[in-house]
Amino acid sequence: MMALLVITSLAWLAFVKPEHDRQQAMADSGAISMVTSLQDQEQETREDTEHQFVQGLKQFWAFTGFRNATRGNLIMMVIGLIFIYLAIKYEYEPLLLIPIGTGILIGNIPFFTDGGTNLQVGIYQQGSVLNYLYFGVLKGVYPPLIFLGIGAMTDFSSLISNPRLLLLGAAAQVGIFTTFIGALLLGFAKPEAGAIGIIGGADGPTAIFLSSRLANGVNVLSDGTTVKNLIGPIAIAAYSYMALVPVIQPPIMRLLTTKKERLIRMKPPRAVTKTEKILFPIFGLLLTCFISPSALPLLGMLFFGNLLKESGVTKRLAETARTSLIDIVTIMIGLTVGASTQADVFLTKESVLIFGLGAAAFAVATFSGVGFAKIMNLFLPEGDKINPLIGNSGVSAVPDSARVSEMEGLKADKTNHLLMHAMGPNVAGVIGSAIAAGILLSYLG
Prior knowledge:
About 75% of the residues lie in helices and about 0% in strands. It has helices at about 1-65, 65-70, 70-90, 95-105, 130-140, 140-155, 155-160, 165-170, 175-185, 190-195, 205-215, 230-245, 245-255, 260, 275-290, 295-310, 315-340, 345, 350-375, 400-410, 420-445.
């Protein structure tokens, strides 16, 4: 028994234990390798995660406006903020400047466009929401609707009672044709010059209508070149000068008139009958559109809106046209025109020239209206003369230029109210600028 125990012990020590130790050593070595392998995998995973996180941050930064903003974008945003400031602080055409200013901000938010990627959000990208809304500007849909609303809220009584005031509205359109000549001299093509010239009428919808026909970036000139797309600069210039009527016109008016002329009192306008008010838009439509058929989209809607107002039997339609409809269209036209001023398209030499020509056009239009009123007084008897201060209202910034006449008249004489007289040439200016646009379109379109 003892011998068997000894033999078994020796066998275990000689054969079993070494093999067990060898296998245990191999097992221990494999465990260490496995631990090392797992640690290596965890390190690689951690490094890969950190790399992906960094790449994600870089990609996020590449898509932000901070990464893609240019100096031009920032300049245009400052201009948009100035528009909003002027509208809120000084109430310069707030219904126009706030939508336009906001549109400028929207249009100049920079987006990632590298590598063919385009997020389809702006005016110039097919398929974007703003592009669909901009269709109304590009195709001239919004301006006639604006004219419909203007007609529904306009009282032509002052013009009907004193038809000679129509001449002041016509005289102010000299600014349009003067600017047209100036644009030609600066190297613009004839259609482009015609669209720029209409800024002299200080009528934003008319400027958009004509530029959408003549300077739309689509029409081809006789030499094979394509006209420039100037809708944005022309519209912004026209609306800017409309808003700055209270700033630009008074110095010119005071410069051209004497104290004695500013004190002239005009006879109160006569009462106008209902029949006259009804017949005026009918005959006005026929006469003006026979003179300038190309102006039919504007003048047709203007006189149609006025007939809705004066007929007395379509009050609901007239109310809708002068409130809800014109408000909606004003929002659309202001926002999309503003959004069309992306820096790479708007900040060009042509835009600077357009703004310079617009300022000159506005000054010439004011000068012509006031100057022609002084000329008319040379042929009018005492007691029937015209106060030259209403000559400025021949530009069609309704009713702001008429209000400027009123304010300047009250500065000279606190009891001399000129607003009702100034509304005559003011509404005549609306008609005159539309006729001028039609004439330019018929010759240059």
